[in-house]
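Re: How this chain folds, sequence and tokenised backbone to follow
Notation: Tokens come from a learned vocabulary of local backbone shapes, not from coordinates.
Start of record: The labelled sequence and token lines come straight after this line.
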Amino acid sequence: MRRHFVLRAVAACGVLLLFAAGCQVRRQTALTGRASDDWKRSYAISPDGELQIVGANGAVEIQGGSGSTVEVRAERIAHAATDAAAKEIVPRIGIREDVSPDKIVLLTEGLSGIVIGVTIEVNYHVTMPSSARVRVRAVNGDVSVSDVAGRVVLSSTNGQVIGKNLRGGVDARAVNKGVTVSLGSFGRDPVDLRATNGSVALTVPPDVNASLEANYTNGSFDISSDLNYEPFGEQTRRRARGRLNNGGTPITITTINGNIRVQPPAQQ
């Protein structure tokens, strides 16, 4: 019995030594090197065309404006053991383009083959006609869209979703972060905001006519007294329904493990 005990103790110590050695190796191969470049493109797009960006490990920032072109600057970043190694990786970070006058699709492809000891990210900075539509999916990065009148569909995992001065329909979803949206105007297109493990904040014009439904699990619902809001239908601990002014186009907000806040713009 004592012999078995000694053998087990020796084996356990061996495992601990291997674990410690592994930790030491990881410390020695920390990715302290960094390199980046700017990948730039310009595309013509129809006034009601659509821009799609599918990212991986990086943020997406889109600014609406005048003109008829989409201007893209993608910051490609590589992290490796040394700056020199990272510099060799950067040109290999692929971005696939699928372009037509009515739709522009950009897809972060990353690196082909098996690459060990390297991490990459691509951050998109875009200006585009405000009338066009936007569809973005990101991972490990924030999504921010401003001053767009076309419909926007936004989602991020492990990143915030932010919409500023949006004037069309909105579908925005975040996992492990929150959603913050401000509507510059509101028409016939519905608004649907969802967050899992995060909160939702919505800013609406005081004169908005909308039917609001808020669903919240492990969270709370708060609507500013400065808005003309009248509850209707069944109200529960997890759901609130009501009319903003005369009611109308639906606004649906859903959170799991997060709070909901609806408010008018801040006073200047």
About this structure: The chain is about 15% helix and 50% strand. The mean pLDDT is 89.
